[in-house]
Design brief:
This protein is mostly helical. Helix content is about 35%, strand content about 5%. A hairpin with an 8-residue loop joins strand 1 and strand 2.
Length: about 210
């Protein structure tokens, strides 16, 4: 669009000072002061979270004379400081066992909740809260043929698959003719080892 277009005749532009939005700063709340209130100061006890706004000089003056415990007795101050150690939250003595309706009803409820048995959806703990031990796996019944195969490999019936395979490789390497310089005297032993391993493999032991 050209700058000399007739459409520009209906456009009005405010002067710079009119278009500038002045940032309104709060004034210092000290009596007689017109400086900006740039610093917060607490209003006092019972009005937590509420603040006064002062300039830097007056906030310093205010802080010099500020006393949160003003108007409180010594006993009240000591009690407040003691409660502040626990964040002003209720506490109970160890071993408290109050009854419902008594002054220590809240403590009784807290203790009762503590003694309540926790949820155990996976049934991992016994009645005493101790972890349950894994049940012993039922021993597999070994047939006479399988027992003979274990004896051939000089192994126990409780040997796992990894041990059976390792033992088989060891015996084959020991009795193979290539490992004995062509001696065929151990061929029968090698045949028995291979047959025993096949039996155990077919039976699911390895």
């Amino acid at each position: 669009m050209k700058l000399d277009s007739s459409l520009f005749d209906s456009i009005r532009v405010k002067p710079d000072q009119d278009r500038t939005i002045e940032k309104k700063e709060p004034r210092c709340q000290w009596e007689g002061c017109n400086r900006p209130g740039t610093h917060k100061a607490p209003m006092g006890r019972g009005r937590e979270g509420q603040f006064l706004l002062f300039c830097i000089d007056h906030v310093r003056e205010y802080n010099k004379s500020y006393n949160y415990f003003s108007g409180m007795s010594d006993d009240a101050i000591a009690s407040y400081q003691k409660d502040a150690m626990t964040g002003h939250r209720p506490t109970w003595k160890m071993g408290v066992n109050g009854q419902p309706g008594s002054e220590d009803e809240q403590g009784f409820r807290a203790q009762r909740a503590w003694k309540r048995k926790p949820r155990d959806p996976f049934d991992l703990f016994d009645e005493d809260g101790e972890p349950k031990t894994a049940p012993d796996k039922p021993t597999r019944r070994v047939r006479s043929m399988e027992k003979k195969a274990f004896d051939t490999l000089d192994m126990d019936e409780t040997s796992n698959a990894d041990k059976i395979k390792a033992r088989y490789k060891e015996l084959v390497k020991r009795h193979h003719p290539d490992a004995n310089g062509g001696d065929r005297s151990s061929e029968e032993r090698l045949r028995q080892i291979i047959q025993a391993y096949k039996i155990l493999k077919q039976s699911g032991f390895c």
